[in-house]
Each structure stands twice: as structure tokens, then as C-alpha cells.
Amino acid sequence: VQLQASGGGSVQAGGSLRLSCAASKSIFSINTMGWYRQAPGKVRELVAALTRGGTTNYAEAVKGRFTISGDYARNTVYLQMNSLKPEDTAVYYCNALLRNYDYWGQGTLVTVSS
Questions:
Q1: 83-99 b/e with 16+ CB inside 10 Å = b?
Q2: Which H, E and C letters describe the chain, residue by residue?
Q3: Given its phi and psi angles, is residue 54 left (phi above 0), alpha (psi -120 to 50 degrees) or beta?
Q4: What does the pLDDT average to over 75-104?
Q5: Which residues neighbour 108 within 8 Å (Cβ) at sequence distance 6 or greater?
Q6: C-alpha angle with apex 40: 16 to 18, nearest 5 degrees?
Q7: Largest CA distance in the chain
């Protein structure tokens, strides 16, 4: 599975961004699609996940602010990020879990200034 992430950028605190992750195959066939992030000097962490069955899961730090969704016709998963905070600054990575194997897209940088 090839994953193409886009949508990062710079925004002021309180602003919004939408990340997109286009998959090379039907996301119906993928167990879980997710977004991870890695801030400088920190480990990569799960931000949000969407299962094939439609279940979503969010990190506590982003609950109520971020929303993951899928466009199955476009094989694309989105991460809508609202009320952004400086601590959301990180490189965001798209992930696909298929048959117990993790596929990763290239990162997209999100910078939130105070």
C-alpha cells in the first residue's frame, strides 16, 4: 500500500488544518487507517485511527478537536484539526495496518504558532 499525505502547513493557535492521506488501494480492504505524529525529541504517537468497520479512536490530547474520517470513493482518509495548539506542532504521518503489517506515508509538517 502506498500512502500520500498532504495538507500540512503553518497556522496560528486556534486555527484549523485538514490533512489528507490518499491510499493506492481501497481503504475498505485496510484493517485500520491512522494518523500518527512525532514532535522533535519525542516518540511517534497515535493521534487518531479509523477501522474498516467505522470505529474511531483518538488520543486524549486531541479528543474534541480532531476528527478522522474516510472517503471510500476516493480511498482517502482525512484528519480535520480544529482549535490547534502549539503542542500540536509535529510531523504527521499516515498509517495503514493491513494483514499485521504497517505501511507509512511520508510525513507532513504541521506548525502551530502561539
A1: ebeeebbbbbbbbbbbe
A2: CCEEEECCEEEECCCCEEEEEEECCCHHHCCEEEEEEECCCCCCEEEEEEECCCCEEECHHHCCCEEEEEECCCCEEEEEECCCCHHHCEEEEEEEEECCEEEECCCEEEEEEC
A3: left
A4: 97
A5: 5, 6, 7, 8, 19, 91, 92, 93
A6: 20
A7: 41
| Residue located via cell numbers 511517534 | 44
Q: Report residue 16: phi and psi, to 5°.
A: -135, 150
Model pLDDT, residue 32 = 96
Q: Give the pLDDT confidence score for residue 64 in this predicted structure.
A: 98
78 pLDDT band, cuts 50/70/90, is: very high
Our measurement of the distance from residue 84's CA atom to the centroid of its chain's CA atoms, rounded to an integer in Å, reads 14
Are 5 and 108 in contact by the 8 Å Cβ rule? The answer is: yes
Please, how many CA atoms are within 13 Å of residue 47, restricted to the half-sphere of its CB? 27
